[in-house]
Design brief:
Chain lengths: 337, 337
């Protein structure tokens, strides 16, 4: 692990100048600050707080609402702050734009901004900084994203394999034999993981698992128009959706088409957004406990800052049954007999 | 979550009697204690400590040495205790025998013994209590074992996929094109996971990944005698072993057969046991940071006790390079040219 002394030695300057440059003191020239930060990044230096020094971390948020209790990110950030702030950390929220990512390498941004670590919510695989995470020195927690082989990076989320298995096993128990899957585009780690988890769950539960039972598209409307008729034609009596918003659109679409849910089609979502209680019918879904996820993310980040290299921290998934999933053909036949 | 009141109501006795029976007070008959414990188990009650009450957890140890610093379990248990004891927990070590497991269901043992939670080291898939973990109420952390879908159970270990990938990627970098794998029998979760991780790593690194490149057997000597000649015949110039003891036996076997390591064969182990520094040559291996694993296991257990349902907590793997892996055919050719 590189120290301020290493940086000073490399540049042939004093440790005091390095310290000033990294803490943003006014009496260091911009040129000097730039070469100190660049050398720090090159040597893999990351900020370690000393007693009395202020401790700052940030949460990067991309395309994700988090300002109101009903927003997806709200509870995660609240859970994170609940542990961070009493622990003496200042938590900043930073909007994660492509512009920011293109303007500066990640480690350099972290050092210049004086952050000791960060949590990322809502990254896609194409985000420019994704490549930086393979080698970054700054302690980094990725929610629903995975970067292996860098001891400075932790993945936090729920166990998607377990969640999908709970949904499929329950549908099988309800008498469904053909279960379909609809997803947004597979351009992010989490949707790839859930897609794979769906087929894993079908095989675990000994249900048909042909690729044609799943459909995905970039736009949700396109996904429904293109794949729903196909899944129904193939005899699916239940559909799991990659996330609640898609499940909610599916419910509305079924209402328009006169398909009764759960009478003719059972629907299960993923995430348990606050809106699930208010859809028609209320949506059965796989729950992510977002407050606990936020707390776990802070635990992981503080562990990384203390040099405990956590790779993965997953919470158990939970199936929340409301009213959008009901008996399937097998169960109905049994009940009629 | 069942409470003492629920147990009292079910049995038509007072809450005080339930409390006494569960805490092992002398003025409760053995018959009464038995029915209280059975009802507690049936209702899924698990012990929650109150302020001032002593808090006790246990570590079950099966066939695993842990009494001296050079033993595998030593550092895990030391790490666990380092967090548990200052946190006010008493930690007992319980030898895990098949006899114990056959004599009493797991939840009942935990309630009768007054433990609030436990850590298991060294279970095999055939252990009688493995079935209990699917539904147990007692907070339970399994080291290197996985039981999905029970919010009371957490898996702790290192990221084996990452570890195997580090080993294979390094061998490829060294110029090896045919990498083999030797393993003890696949009768435990961890050896199944590493076996799968080996093939995953070959594919990730675009190396040949035929099933014949791996061999396993119950006894280590049998494994070497049966599979080593086969792997060498197939042109393997490097072998990864499922754990360090097998790798150590392979080094000795090579010495006897006059096969130079790493000159003719590169060997990489798994675990980084203390002995790896003393083998001939010193063994390159995938490291498990056992002290941090012990601490993480306690974090996971205390989280479960506080009702935060952690499913999985994995630490980053690390490749420790000593002297048993060296340049392979591709690299040697290049160097000779």
């Amino acid at each position: 692990m590189a120290t301020m002394d290493d940086i000073a030695r490399r540049l042939g300057i004093s440790r005091g100048t390095v310290s000033k440059a990294l803490s943003g003191a006014a009496d260091v020239s911009e040129t000097m600050r730039k070469s100190v930060v660049e050398t720090a990044v090159e040597l893999g230096y990351s900020r370690i707080s000393r007693t009395g020094e202020s401790r700052r971390v940030c949460v990067f948020v991309e395309n994700m609402a988090y300002e109101k209790p009903e927003d997806f990110g709200w509870e995660i950030i609240t859970g994170f702050r609940k542990l961070a702030e009493p622990g003496g950390y200042q938590v900043d929220i930073v909007p994660l734009t492509e512009e920011l990512q293109r303007s500066i390498p990640y480690d350099e941004y972290m050092l210049r901004s004086g952050y000791q670590g960060s949590l990322f919510l809502g990254l896609s695989l194409l985000d420019p900084w994704m490549a930086d995470f393979r080698t970054c020195a700054a302690p980094t927690v990725l929610y629903d994203n995975q970067v292996r082989s860098n001891p400075a990076v932790t993945q936090v989320g729920i166990d998607n394999i377990e969640g999908m298995d709970l949904a499929v096993a329950r549908l099988k128990e309800l008498g469904h034999r053909k279960v379909g899957y609809l997803s947004t585009a597979l351009g992010s780690y989490i949707y790839q993981a859930r897609y794979a988890a769906f087929f894993h769950a079908l095989r675990q539960n000994k249900l048909p698992a042909q690729r044609e039972l799943a459909g995905y598209a970039f736009r949700l409307t396109e996904c429904l128009e293109k794949h729903l008729p196909r899944l129904l034609d193939r005899g699916c009596t239940a559909i799991i959706c990659s996330h609640d918003l898609l499940a909610h659109m599916l419910l509305i679409h079924c209402l328009e088409l006169g398909i009764s849910v759960p009478g003719q089609l059972s629907v299960i979502g993923f995430d348990d957004l606050p809106l699930c209680q208010y859809t028609i019918p209320p949506l059965s879904t796989v729950r992510q406990n977002r407050t606990e996820l936020g707390k776990s993310a802070f635990y992981a980040l503080s562990s990384l800052i203390e040099r405990t290299p956590i790779s993965t921290l997953l919470l158990h998934a939970e199936l929340v049954e409301r009213r959008s999933a009901g008996p399937g053909p097998d169960r109905e036949t049994t009940e009629q007999q």
